[in-house]
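User: Sequence recovery, please. Input:
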C-alpha cells in the first residue's frame, strides 16, 4: 500500500513540476530574452538559436520554483481531499509519505547545481556570440526604425537618413562624439559606406566617408576629415568576462590566481600601452631638445612601412608634456604664425611621399597625441597643427591659411616599441617611477593593485557561495513546501502559490542580499557569507520544526 501511495504521489509531483517549470521557463525566456532581442532586429533563425541557448539558464532558475510549487499543490491537495486523514487512520506515518518529495528535492538540487555551475554559463557564452554575430543586422534595424544608433563605449551617436543593408551605403550620415562635453565633435557626410569587421571577439563598424566635414565645438572651425578615430567605431555586444558568467572551473581558477584572469590581464595590457605612449613622448622630447628635429613618424600600415609610405619630419626648438596626455610644441596658446610661415613659425612639418617632398606646414603651435588603435591593435600618433600655413612642394605665392590641420595617424617607431616591450611590468608595478609615468597611468596602477584584484576576488567568492547555497536551498525548499502544503491544505492553485512564495522569496532575497554584501563590504566578506548561509540555516530550522512536530501529530 505504501509503495502504491509513493508511486501515486511521485507521478503527480513529476507531472506538476514539469508543467509548472515549462510554463515559468517559457514565460521568463520570452520576456527576458526574446522580446528585447526582437526589438534589436534578430532574425527568426537567430532568435530560435538564442532561445535554445537561454533555456538551460532559465531552467536552472525556474526548476526549483516549479518543484516548490508542485510539492505544495500536490501535498496540499492530498491533505485537502482527506487522503492524509485516511492514511493516518490506516496506521501510516505522515513522514513516510514524504519520500517522493525527498527524491524530488534531491533531483532538483543536483540538476540546479549542474546547470548553474557548468551548463548555463557555457550556453550563455554561445548566446553572446549569437548576438555579436548579429550586430550588423541590429545596427541597420536601429537605423531604419529609429534613425540613429547610440554607442555608449566612447560616447558615440551615429545618425543616417536612410540605410541600405544590401549595399552597405547610408545617406545623410552624421557622427557625434560627446566624450568631452566641452568639445563635442561632429562629422557630416552626404553618404558613407559601412563594413563590419571582428577583431579579438569585438565588432567594429568601418566607415568610408564621401567628402566628410568635421566640426569642433571648442575651436569653432570645420575641415575635411582626416582623423582615423572617425573611421573605426566599436559596437557594444553583450557583457563578458564577468564572474556571474563563469563556470565552476573558471571561478575556481580565478579565485586561486586572480592575476591570471581576463579582466586583470586586460588591464595590464592597457597599462603597458600607456607606458608605451609615455616612452614615445620621452623619445620625441629628447630628439627635439637635442637637435630640434624628429623624423621617425611614418604612415600607419602593415609593418614595415613601404618605401612609398607617407612620413613626416617635425622641426621645433623644444616641447613640453602637458598633463601627461600629450606633447605641446611651439608658441603658447593665442600666438599666431607669421603669414607665409618660415623661420618665425613655432613648428615646421615636412610631409614626404617616399623620398619626395609633398607638403610643408608652418604653424604657431602643435599637439602630438599618442593613442592605441583598437581596430588595428597597434599604437598610433596624430599631429594637430594650429594657425597653420600649408604650402605644396614647388608652390609659389601665398600659402593656404588654416585654423587647424590634423596629420596622421602615424605608426609609433619600431625602436620605441622594442623599448616599451622590454619593460618588466611586474617589477614596474611594484615600484613605478611617478616622474616618468602619466598621472592617468599611475591612477590605473593604483586601482589595479588596490581595487581591481580584490573586487574581482570578492565577486568570485560571492558567486561561488551563491550558486552552492542556491543549489542546496532547492532541496530544502521542496521539503518545506510539501510540509506547508499538508499543514495548510494548499490544494488550490492560488493557495499553493501563496504558500510556496513565502520560503522561495525569502531565500532568494537573502541569497542575493548576501552576494551584494560580499561584493561591497571591502574585505569583510563574512557578513555576506553569514547572510547567505543564514538563509539556508533558517530553511533547515523551518524544515526541522515542521517535520519534527506538526506533521507527527
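Assistant: Recovered sequence (553 residues):
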Amino acid at each position: 500500500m505504501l509503495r502504491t501511495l509513493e508511486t501515486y504521489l511521485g507521478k503527480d509531483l513529476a507531472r506538476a513540476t514539469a508543467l509548472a517549470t515549462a510554463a515559468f521557463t517559457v514565460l521568463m525566456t520570452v520576456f527576458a530574452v526574446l522580446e528585447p532581442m526582437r526589438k534589436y532586429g534578430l532574425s527568426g533563425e537567430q532568435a530560435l538559436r538564442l532561445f535554445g541557448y537561454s533555456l538551460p539558464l532559465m531552467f536552472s532558475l525556474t526548476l526549483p520554483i516549479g518543484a516548490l510549487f508542485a510539492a505544495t499543490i500536490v501535498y496540499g491537495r492530498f491533505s485537502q481531499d482527506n487522503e492524509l486523514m485516511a492514511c493516518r487512520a490506516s496506521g501510516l506515518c505522515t513522514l513516510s509519505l514524504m519520500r517522493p518529495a525527498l527524491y524530488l528535492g534531491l533531483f532538483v538540487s543536483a540538476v540546479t547545481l549542474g546547470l548553474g555551475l557548468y551548463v548555463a554559463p557555457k550556453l550563455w557564452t554561445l548566446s553572446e556570440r549569437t548576438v555579436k554575430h548579429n550586430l550588423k543586422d541590429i545596427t541597420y534595424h536601429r537605423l531604419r526604425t529609429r534613425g540613429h544608433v547610440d554607442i555608449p563605449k566612447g560616447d558615440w551617436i551615429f545618425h543616417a537618413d536612410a540605410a541600405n543593408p544590401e549595399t552597405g551605403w547610408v545617406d545623410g550620415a552624421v557622427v557625434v562624439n560627446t566624450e568631452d562635453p566641452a568639445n563635442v565633435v561632429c562629422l557630416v557626410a552626404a553618404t558613407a559606406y559601412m563594413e563590419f569587421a571582428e577583431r579579438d571577439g569585438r565588432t567594429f563598424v568601418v566607415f568610408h566617408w564621401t567628402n566628410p566635414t568635421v566640426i569642433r565645438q571648442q575651436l569653432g572651425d570645420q575641415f575635411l576629415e582626416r582623423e582615423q578615430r572617425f573611421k573605426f567605431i566599436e559596437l557594444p555586444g553583450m557583457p563578458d568576462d564577468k564572474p556571474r558568467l563563469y563556470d565552476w572551473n573558471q571561478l575556481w581558477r580565478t579565485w586561486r590566481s586572480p592575476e591570471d584572469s581576463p579582466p586583470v590581464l586586460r588591464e595590464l595590457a592597457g597599462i603597458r600601452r600607456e607606458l608605451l605612449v609615455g616612452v614615445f613622448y620621452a623619445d620625441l622630447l629628447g630628439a627635439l631638445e637635442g637637435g630640434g628635429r624628429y623624423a621617425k613618424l611614418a604612415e600607419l600600415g602593415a609593418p614595415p612601412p613601404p618605401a612609398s609610405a607617407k612620413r613626416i619630419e617635425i622641426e621645433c626648438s623644444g616641447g613640453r608634456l602637458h598633463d601627461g596626455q600629450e606633447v605641446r610644441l611651439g608658441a603658447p596658446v593665442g600666438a599666431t604664425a607669421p603669414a607665409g610661415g618660415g623661420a618665425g613659425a613655432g613648428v615646421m612639418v615636412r610631409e614626404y611621399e617616399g623620398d619626395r617632398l609633398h607638403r610643408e606646414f608652418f604653424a604657431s603651435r602643435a599637439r602630438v597625441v599618442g593613442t592605441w588603435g583598437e581596430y588595428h591593435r597597434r599604437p598610433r600618433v596624430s599631429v594637430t597643427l594650429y594657425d597653420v600655413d600649408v604650402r605644396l612642394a614647388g608652390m609659389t605665392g601665398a600659402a593656404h591659411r588654416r585654423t587647424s590641420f590634423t596629420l596622421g595617424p602615424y605608426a609609433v617607431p619600431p625602436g620605441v616599441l622594442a623599448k616599451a616591450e622590454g619593460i618588466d611590468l611586474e617589477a614596474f608595478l611594484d615600484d613605478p617611477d611617478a616622474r616618468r609615468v602619466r598621472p592617468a597611468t599611475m591612477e590605473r596602477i593604483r586601482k589595479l593593485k588596490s581595487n581591481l584584484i580584490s573586487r574581482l576576488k570578492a565577486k568570485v567568492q560571492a558567486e561561488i557561495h551563491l550558486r552552492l547555497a542556491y543549489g542546496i536551498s532547492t532541496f530544502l525548499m521542496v521539503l518545506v513546501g510539501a510540509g506547508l502544503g499538508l499543514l495548510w491544505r494548499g490544494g488550490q492553485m492560488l493557495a499553493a502559490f501563496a504558500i510556496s512564495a513565502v520560503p522561495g522569496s525569502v531565500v532568494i532575497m537573502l541569497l542575493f542580499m548576501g552576494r551584494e554584501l560580499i561584493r561591497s563590504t571591502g574585505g569583510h566578506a563574512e557578513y555576506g557569507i553569514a547572510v547567505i548561509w543564514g538563509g539556508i540555516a533558517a530553511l533547515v530550522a523551518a524544515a526541522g520544526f515542521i517535520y519534527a512536530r506538526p506533521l507527527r501529530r
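The radius of gyration is 33 Å.
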